[in-house]
Specification:
This protein is an alpha+beta fold and 346 residues long. Among the domains are: 90 residues, ApbE-like superfamily (T-fold, Orthogonal Bundle); 129 residues, ApbE-like domains (T-fold), CATH 3.10.520.10. Helices cover 33% and strands 25% of the residues. It contains 9 helices and 18 strands. It has a 9-stranded mixed sheet with strand order 2-3-7-8-11-14-15-16-18. The longest helix has 26 residues. It binds adenosine monophosphate (AMP) and magnesium ion. The site of magnesium ion has 8 residues, from helix 8.
């Protein structure tokens, strides 16, 4: 979810020289470990500024509650899950546990936020990017042998317990999409009809830019700028996961932050996955799972996760997508990449 989405819609409009409507209010900040960009259009600037100020406070709150390695709400929950027995949870975390448990099951365990021990072993639960070497096979095998699953976490009212001491929750593959959804919900309550929230490449939009749809760019996973752009419709999200966000090179090999729960190693064969879906939270979980599913299995996993529009870029630079995505993608690189269109029957 830490990929960069480039907001093209506004630039296009300015080139065409619009004079009367006020320009969109834009603001960017650093939150949830990354850059967050807001664009709001069609309301007075003071109101847009107030909405953004509130969103920044909300993000700080969510970040403190959900941070996977800084001390805080999730840290306390993880310590208590490891001890066994019931304890009172922070209510804020309960809907995330519920939804990620369902998504994890739908993904066939490829999306597994209970695997925090593995992410930590690789050094990805850290403010400083890991440098390598990769962990030993023995350490990886030891962590995987604990078989932590979201279904090990039981919710009893506002109490939680884990039946497996190896569960360590890390919502890094989901939390930013979840945050983008919450911000847009709040914007709607404030009467905002046209907006973009981009939490580290997890983009959720509502409405449009003047009389045309917002156009969002998808970062080129192996180059500068954008590989393609998509016209966004009304209220939906576009989320990209990639192997270029957090990684280290060790002895000429790239080790990135999306780990295959079956092997304990970074997923292989796909450099980025983009998903369009009504909510950013589901798109975020799905983009991570589909990186791991790879070019052979992504359709089946997408179907089970209820995700309809998907684009993968493989490590040869080929683009794999279904026709609902192909109908919306415009390539922004020349020459355009080789494209494989695949649709699951039914
Ligand atoms: P994203 O950028 O959304 O794909 O999320 C990547 C982050 O999710 C990593 O930095 C880890 O914290 C976490 N993560 C890595 N592999 C998995 C996985 N298989 N399931 C769930 N979360 C994962
Ligand atoms: Mg994700």
């Amino acid at each position: 979810m830490r990929s960069l989405a480039i907001l093209l819609g506004a630039c296009v409009a300015f080139v065409s020289g619009c004079s009367s409507p006020p320009p969109p209010f834009k603001h960017s900040t650093f939150a949830m470990g990354s850059t967050v960009e807001f664009t709001i259009e069609g309301i007075p600037e003071a109101d847009a500024r107030a909405a953004v100020d509130e969103a920044i406070e909300d993000l700080a709150y969510l970040d403190a509650a959900l941070h996977a390695w800084h001390p805080g709400t999730l840290g306390r929950i993880n310590s208590l899950l490891a001890l066994g027995g019931k304890f009172t949870s922070s209510p804020l975390v309960l809907p995330l546990i519920e939804q990620t448990t369902q998504l994890s099951e739908q993904s066939g365990g490829l999306f597994n936020p209970a695997l925090g021990e593995l992410f930590a072993l690789w050094g990805f639960e850290s403010d400083d990017p890991p440098m390598g070497p990769p962990p030993s096979d023995a350490d990886i095998a030891r962590v995987l042998a604990g078989k932590p699953q979201m279904s090990d976490v039981r919710i009893h009212g506002i109490e939680l317990e884990s039946v497996n001491p190896h569960v360590k929750l890390d919502f890094g593959a989901y939390g930013q999409g979840y945050a983008a959804d919450r911000i847009i919900e709040r914007f709607k309550q404030r009467g905002i009809k046209n907006a973009i929230v981009n939490v580290s490449g997890d983009v959720r939009i509502i409405g449009q830019h003047e009389d045309r749809p917002w156009r969002i760019g998808i970062r080129n996973p192996r180059g500068e700028g954008v590989i393609a752009s998509v016209l966004m419709r009304g209220d939906e999200s576009l989320v990209t996961s990639g192997d270029y966000e957090r990684y280290f090179l060790y002895q000429g090999k790239r080790y990135h932050h999306i780990l295959d729960p079956r092997t304990g190693y970074p997923s292989r064969g796909v450099t980025s996955v983009t998903v369009i879906h009504p909510t950013a939270a589901v798109a975020d979980a799905a983009a991570t799972a589909l990186m791991i599913a790879g070019v052979n299995d992504w359709q089946e996993v997408a179907r089970r996760m209820g995700v309809k529009s998907v684009m993968l870029v493989d490590d040869q630079g080929r683009v794999h997508m279904n026709s609902s995505m192909a109908a919306r993608v415009k390539f922004e690189i020349d020459p355009a990449p080789q494209v494989v269109i695949v649709d699951t029957p039914g």
